């Protein structure tokens, strides 16, 4: 199964040199299935594939960009996602990917009323499709975002939410699933990412609080369970 990784952003070179790019992290996240192969597309340089059928499934990475900017490559990505829906090619969206998938399907994305969401966050599971059968009622994942989905698209199902993020995970039937958080981020990478930007482009108070949580001995995420679920989601498409 060929997975097209739609790269919409990359970490700063120093972080990427130590932890890999977001595409690398996607490959690690889905690395539990040796039958998956990957091809990367760097979208900001107009490398958006024309055909949604050129890969068996698609994963959209995170990005420091905002979908509200509506840059040409973002609009091309929205068009590709609608083509993927029509071609029944499954899609997984992560953070920016979650937002642009919702926007492409008719939802509304804007800055979160509560501001930046940083660090380890808990989300209540609101729906349990078969591929999420092993997930707990509460999911803990790494987050770093200012924008979020404020109005979900018609027909989307709420998978998980939190008081400060009411549409934290969405599904679109058996076709697509997306998470506002980052199941592909490790705790170590989240710590390094926040450390690099807190007090620079990220707020000092909430950033320091997030770093304190990440420094606790029991800091951990449910990323392994989400990875298992996403692999089951992809396998059901074969």
UniProtKB/TrEMBL annotation:
Q: Where is the Glutamine amidotransferase domain?
A: 53-187
Q: Which UniProt keywords apply?
A: Glutamine amidotransferase, Transferase
Q: Is Chaperone there in the keyword field?
A: no
Which GO terms of the molecular function aspect are on file? Answer: transferase activity
Q: Name one GO cellular component term.
A: cytosol
Q: Which PROSITE patterns match?
A: GATASE_TYPE_1 (PS51273)
- What are the TM regions of this chain, as residue ranges? none
InterPro entries from the entry?
ChyE-like, Class_I_gatase-like, GATASE
What is the protein name stated in its UniProt record?
Answer: Glutamine amidotransferase
Q: Which organism is it from?
A: Telmatospirillum siberiense
């Amino acid at each position: 199964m060929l997975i097209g990784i739609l790269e919409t952003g990359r970490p700063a070179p120093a972080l990427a040199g130590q932890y890999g790019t977001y595409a690398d992290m996607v490959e690690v996240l889905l690395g539990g299935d040796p039958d998956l192969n990957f091809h990367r597309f760097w979208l900001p340089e107009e490398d958006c594939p024309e055909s949604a059928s050129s890969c068996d499934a698609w994963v959209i990475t995170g990005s420091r960009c905002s979908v509200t900017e509506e840059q040409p490559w973002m609009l091309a990505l929205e068009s590709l996602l609608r083509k993927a829906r029509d071609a029944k090619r499954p899609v997984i969206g992560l953070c920016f990917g979650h937002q642009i998938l919702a926007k492409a399907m008719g939802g509304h994305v804007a800055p979160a009323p509560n501001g930046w969401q940083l660090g380890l966050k808990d989300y209540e599971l609101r729906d349990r499709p078969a591929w999420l059968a092993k997930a707990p009622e509460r999911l803990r994942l790494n987050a770093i975002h200012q924008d979020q989905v404020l109005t979900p698209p018609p027909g989307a199902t709420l998978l998980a939410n939190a008081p400060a993020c009411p549409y934290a995970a969405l599904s679109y039937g058996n076709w697509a699933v997306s998470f506002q958080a980052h199941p592909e981020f490790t705790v170590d990478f989240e710590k390094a990412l926040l450390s690099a930007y807190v007090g620079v482009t990220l707020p000092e108070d909430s950033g320091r609080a997030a770093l304190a949580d990440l420094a606790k001995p029991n800091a951990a995420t449910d990323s392994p369970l989400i990875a298992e679920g996403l692999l089951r989601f992809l396998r059901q498409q074969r």
